[in-house]
Amino acid sequence: MNYTSSRDNQISVDSASAILSGLSSEGGLFLPKQLVHFDLLSLLPLNYTAIQNLILKSFFDDLEIDYNALNLAYNRKFDTPEICPLAKLEDFYVLELYHGPTYAFKDMALTALPYLMQAALHQHNQSEDVLILTATSGDTGSASLEAFKDIPGFKICVFYPSNGVSQIQKRMMQTAQGRNVHVCAILGNFDDAQNGVKQILNQANESKLKLSSANSINIGRLISQMAYYFKAYIDLVKLEQIKLNEKVSFVVPSGNFGNILAAYLAKQCGLPISKLICASNQNDVLTQFIETGVYDRNRPFLPSTSPSMDILISSNVERLLWFITQHDSAKVKGWMNDLATSGSYILDSTSKTILQNDFKAYACSEKEVIDSIHQHSAYDHYLLDPHSAVAACAALKYQNEFHSTEKVIVLSTASPFKFPATLMQGLSQPVSADDFENLKNLVRLTGCELPYGLDKLVNEPIIHSTCIETKDMKVYLKGLL
Known about the structure:
Layout: E1 2-5, E2 8-14, H1 15-21, E3 30-32, H2 40-43, H3 48-59, H4 67-77, E4 86-88, E5 93-96, H5 106-110, H6 113-123, E6 130-135, H7 139-148, E7 154-161, H8 167-174, E8 181-186, H9 190-207, E9 211-213, H10 219-238, E10 248-253, H11 258-268, E11 273-280, H12 285-292, E12 294-296, H13 317-324, H14 329-342, E13 344-346, H15 349-358, E14 359-363, H16 366-379, H17 386-402, E15 407-412, H18 420-426, H19 435-446, H20 452-455, E16 467-468, H21 473-480
Parallel strand pairs: 5-15, 6-7, 6-9, 7-8, 8-16, 10-11, 10-15, 11-14
Antiparallel strand pairs: 1-2, 1-3, 4-5, 12-13
Helix pairs in contact: 1-6, 3-10, 10-11, 16-17, 16-18, 18-19
């Protein structure tokens, strides 16, 4: 299959080029030139890895992916046989996406990405090492480091905002092991880190450096993420909670918009979805965009208890614009230029209507996040991390507004034990300034078993402690190259 750019439909590259480049030469994001329709009935007997393999074979049909090795990686790295099990709460289902090695949903697609990239390198007969650049608002960093550590042919460098991630997220990155991994904090927020990575990738396209990205701007990650939406739907059919072809709605805590865009792609490929509900925290740029058709990043950046969603420039919205404008790359490029120069753009009425046909959005305050954690712990005896609590809050707002009888599936994107201070607050317990003390108290309070990787984290040596100004990212990378 060939891929084009969100900003120039004249561009056409093969799967390998799209995956290895990360960004198109003019700064656009790669998109498949055509979509594939999946027959739901044929998916019924398949487990998670089989569903994902089918999707990858359909979109990357020109790559020789080692599916046996890929399947073994999932079986080895995930601590549940189902990979992404469903939990039933009183008001909705929860799709648990945090059972991988770094206890966040990023593991779901990043486990596959090295295998896609290895196949792409083989396809292009490329022998030089590729440097993977990643900006993270928390979870992508550790998941990328884990996925690419000691993989031949790759080096990886992760940039994260020094004061924009939780203590546990930071410690996971600072203690990351691997001969080929590098981690660097920046004095800025996630948008600063992401913009820096994009600029470096654009310059690499001009200078032919072998750089790529593990962020959701990489099409390999985005396509892989479609699999768990199909798996959740098939599970509900098998549980006889819905009939085949009955519509459901998904609620997705959203920051960079990649996760919910994968759901949108799944819908375009035949998954019966009624509404895609975009859940925002107090940084509600996405909610305002979906409600008004105006994307405006000219607002205060508000650090929150759900740091992976503290984003004002959501990159994957650009891909959505390409779809809702019927592939009008010139219009998308114009809006992206407006965003870069003035910090905002306004959809035309037709595009706004198409957007609102598929999407609904709600924002949740910090108080509502804490209340959501408390409510579901008390009534459902279920622990939600703060990002998932945002989604649960949005789900109830949606149900209260529309009184719909459809099944609603909330995406749980991280283990609650990665954010113990917020969980202790949500459980109305004293909060320590030391997150590892909060972790011990949370385990003691709930009686839950602490995931092994988090249990040993406090004793792991800090390996990566560099912190730089955002403007020095390129200089830092020159040292690695």
